[in-house]
Amino acid sequence: MGLSSVFRSALLILPLPFLLKRFQYCHSHVLAHAYCLHLEIMKLACSSIIVNHIYGLFVVACTVGVDSLLIFLSYALILRTVLSIASHHERLRALNTCVSHICAVLLFYIPMIGLSLVHRFGEHLPRTVHLLMSYVYLLVPPLMNPIVYSIKTKQIRQRIVKKFEFIKSRRGFQQD
User: Fold this and answer.
1) 109 φ, ψ to 5°?
2) Are 149 and 104 in contact (CB under 8 A)?
3) How much of the chain exceeds pLDDT 70, in percent?
4) What's the pLDDT tens digit per position in 129-153?
5) Phi/psi of residue 27, nearest 5 degrees
6) For 81, what's the count of Cα atoms within 13 Å in the CB-facing half-sphere?
7) pTM reported for the whole predicted model
8) Angle 127-150/88-121 helices, nearest 10 degrees?
């Protein structure tokens, strides 16, 4: 499975530099992001970018579409298996394990889809929105992933609850 994932990614990304190389660039050579984004480089070209535009949509559809379908099918099978467990307590425990994975998947895909939509259909939006979305896409998933998985640890969860209770009690004390 890992090799097929690497092969698919390489196969989809490999044509992009060759598609970009054929353009003449006449606009500013300054990118709006701190990293090289295919759609951003396409916009610097003077010639028609329709082939790259279609290929970019194809790549997003292949990755997000196929991945979403496979994730949905795997969770349908997991849900079917979990619901067949006799013990109510064990069912809840098994479903609780899936919640953090679903959150991690959503933390990855939602910024990616948002960034793609902003770049494809948000020409009228201020540059700040484009920058913000690019940094959300780049930084939020790796920053939030450890939090999503560690919040399931009972000791960490108890410490967080205690910290919020302490902050809440201090606010109440200060207002009195």
Assistant:
1) -80, -35
2) yes
3) 95
4) 888 888 898 899 999 888 888 877 7
5) -85, 180
6) 10
7) 0.66
8) 170
